[in-house]
Design goal:
Layout: H1 2-24, H2 35-52, E1 74-79, E2 92-95, E3 101-103, E4 108-114, E5 119-121, E6 131-136, E7 141-153, E8 160-161, E9 166-170, E10 174-175, E11 187-193, E12 221-223, H3 231-239, E13 248-249, H4 258-262, E14 268-270, E15 276-278, H5 289-292
Parallel strand pairs: 5-10, 5-13
Antiparallel strand pairs: 1-2, 1-12, 2-11, 3-9, 4-6, 4-8, 6-7, 7-9, 7-11, 14-15
Helix pairs in contact: 1-2
Length: 336
């Protein structure tokens, strides 16, 4: 039922054009073609282009940001700019995307991509191991999409993307804190000043067009209006809105949890004289290699380089020992 309508929609501009050309033969040369017909043709052609191709990617990108997930879906803000425990000095948001499609909040050129990290947790030692996508907007600013899932990038460096294009799947790679010390899949989004070769730089404030110029706040949910371009992109987005996690969420003991270090650690201990005694800085414990890859190395048994000498063999003891020899008695000497 939809196929004939689609064909009719595609052929309508040409049919109208043929009708107009045929009508020109019957219209005197002193009477120009009415502009209403020409404007109708242009509108239909523009409609067809928008349905089949959508807006072409532009670099530099036009101004305006939209929420970076599929339209019509609602997601909550877990952490807002300046929030605890990791956004004190960042103008950034954490959205609770659970291994879902991430859409470009604004068009631009993909400048940096990393999707090779497999694990995530709440230990500060994982701070530099998050997967990410960095999109250069061409006006001195770039957008960072952080904690992408392992092998979750859908774009390559140098690609041009438009607003609403699918660029990745969210995940929990790197320093990704959740309740109880577990990694929490989410999307960290920030806009920063473009520094060639660097994925992190000074963050800057932005607003979102689908929120009428407002900014999201922690604890509230928002519905995206970031519509992907083209019918094919929209169809693929509906077919593959999410996927199973490919990375690994690891448990971090409370002693190594970033939440415990940043929130529950006292800042000073008062002494008898009333002078506060500063608490020494806690150095996070680095996790051994077997902690990073438990599934790959679970069957390996470590062998020491200098093994201890084998124990001496034990001398067997008989269960039924022979009786001790009898004590000889003295033979009496005959007297004569």
């Amino acid at each position: 039922m939809c196929f004939p309508v689609w064909v009719l929609l595609c052929l309508t501009p040409f049919l109208l054009g043929a009708t107009t050309i045929g009508g020109l033969e019957r219209i005197p040369s002193s009477q120009p073609v009415r502009p209403s017909v020409s404007s109708l043709i242009e509108k239909l052609l523009e409609l067809r282009r928008s349905l089949t191709q959508g807006s072409q990617p532009v670099f530099p990108a036009p101004a305006g940001y939209r929420l970076p997930w599929a339209p019509g879906l609602s997601h909550a803000v877990a952490q807002a700019p300046g929030g605890e425990p990791t956004h004190q000095s960042l103008y950034a948001w954490d959205f609770d995307l659970q291994y879902e499609l991430v859409l470009a909040a604004r068009g631009g050129r993909v400048s940096m991509v990393r999707a090779s990290e497999r694990i995530g947790g709440c230990d500060s030692a994982l701070g530099g191991r998050a997967n990410y996508i960095l999109i250069d907007h061409g006006d001195g600013t770039s957008a960072l999409y952080l904690h992408i899932d392992y092998q979750g990038a859908l774009v390559q460096e140098g690609a041009l993307v438009a607003q609403g294009d699918a660029i990745a799947y969210s995940g929990s790679s790197g320093l990704s804190c959740g309740d109880g010390g577990w990694a929490g899949p989410h999307l960290h989004f920030q806009v920063e000043r473009t520094v060639p070769g660097n994925s992190r730089s000074e963050t800057i404030p932005v607003t979102f067009d689908d929120l009428k110029g407002d900014t999201p706040v922690a604890g509230r949910s928002y519905v995206s209006a970031n519509l992907p371009r083209g019918l094919l992109a929209r169809a693929l987005m509906r077919m593959f809105p999410d996927r199973a996690a490919r990375g690994q969420e690891i448990y971090v003991p409370p002693s190594r949890s970033l939440l415990a270090q940043r929130v529950h650690l006292p800042t000073a201990v008062p002494t008898a004289t009333g002078t506060p005694k500063p608490t020494p800085t806690v150095t996070p414990t680095l996790m051994p290699s077997w902690w990073f890859y438990p599934s790959d190395r679970s069957s390996e048994i470590p062998v020491p380089k200098n093994p201890p000498p084998p124990p001496l063999p034990e001398i067997p003891v008989p269960r039924n020992p022979s009786p001790p020899p009898a004590t000889p008695t003295a033979t009496p000497t005959p007297t004569g």
